[in-house]
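name: query_chain
kind: protein
chains: 1
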Amino acid sequence: MKKSEWNDHDIKEMIKQLPRIKDDRHPSHIYSKVKKEKRPWNSVRRFVPALVTLAALFIVVLLSPALISQLNQSNQDSAMEGSFSTDSSGGEAKTATESPANELDSDPGPAQDPKEESQLKMAEDNDKYSESITTPETELQHERLSVFKEDVADKDYYSYGVVSADAIPVPVSVITKAEENQKDWVEQYETISNLLPESDWGFQDYFPIKGDLSLGENKETVLLTMDENHPYSGSSAIESNFYQSLLYSFEEKDVKEIILQNKDGSTPEFSHYGTLSSIPLNQDLHHAFYSYSPNGRDRYLVPDPVNRKNVKQSIGAMKETPSGLFKSVIPEHLSMDVTESDDMVIVTFNEKVDLDSMNFQSAQELIEGILLTARSSGYEKVQFQNIVQGKWNGFNFAHPIETPLSPNKKSLNE
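structure:
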């Protein structure tokens, strides 16, 4: 090549004469521009995993029919091999269903898994529970205030006229185990009277009676031989309580009267009652029942001592209490019509009665108070009408309800 005529000095001079280039951009701005130019490739690289996944799925879809077919064929071959067995002599093959009965019986089978045993036990328990919750309603125990026939199917009960601090006699009924070969029920009555937790129930200590009780020879009377210094005379309230207590204690037993005597055989004399030789039992007294609390906590169904003419008057009297100590069991807004047939009382409420909308014990007192009032007039059944519930607490209102045997059910375990 021809040697250039330019020397270094001339080149430098020429460069100095070139126009000056000025760039006002910040270096970071220039760097960001460079990064942006690299992004297209980065975006493509980000989508590569997704494309690979889609391709893999596409291959699986193409191959799955063949795989499924091969798997089904393998299962069928295994099933065919398992369904046939060859005897030890290499003879003819037999299916399991063609095995002789004696071979099946002799085969003890595989040992049962403990987990399977537990599951079977659980299933049996569930079956038993299902049977228990479908027990007929007549076999269930219901919470009642009074003693009904179903309560004493295999038991006995004894009634006692306990007395409160307000000088109010209250009948309570103690259910006990039936005594086998019992000759004299009066002896059992006296035994239980020594065990009554009267103070726990809200009453005074009144029992046992101060005297000797025995069953008459004809078994139609109870004989009370009183102690010489008995505490049952001195005021009308004391003597009334004594009379009512004995009445409540024996009126539900199959005896006609209580005969009173002193130890010398004479007739007892009281300051207000005068001479009192006997107390008649099992009469239709036409008493009305009310709710009463001796301690502000416990409540009892109590009859008033007034003897009315008939059951209609007795139920009508339940709306008005004889004193401030008693409470009516019939709500103030509720009215009813009462009619009598040959063997039952028919109570028709003039307004629909929704027992579930009431306090549970108040609803119990309404129904059982009317039943006890009807029984006091000698009736054994009551037909209720215009109650919302067809069945409630074991009562079936589609049919006449049997009246209780005795009020205020108790047990010695309470």
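note: Residues 292 and 324 are 10 Å apart (CA to CA).
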